[in-house]
Write a structure and sequence with these properties.
The chain is of the alpha+beta class. The chain has 2 helices and 5 strands, in the order αβββββα. A 5-stranded antiparallel sheet has the order 1-2-3-4-5, with helices on one face. A hairpin with a 4-residue loop joins strand 1 and strand 2. The N and C termini lie far apart (40 Å).
Length: 105
Amino acid sequence: MNTLHEIKDWLHEKLNQGKFSYRNNLDRFTEINEDKKYVKVILHTSENAYYIIATLDGYLGCIISSRKAELGEKHLRGADLADGKLNEETLNKIVYDILAYEIVS
């Protein structure tokens, strides 16, 4: 992938597989930053925000930011999720990490 728009299209294609269409409008949740050479897709759940970042130099990663504090705490938590090469294997790891974060007992 040679352009940020190609990366964006690839991410949207992969995230739309299996009907993960995020209401069929990922454009609303996608930012292309031409200056810093990255594409960011932000997925929100009731408690978390997930930032999937892909860069022109072939990096793909994700961080989570909690949208509410844990019980008894006043600060929000965040964490790094899977990252690595810009490929389907890394994206699958990211999606599995997101799923693991969202499953509750």
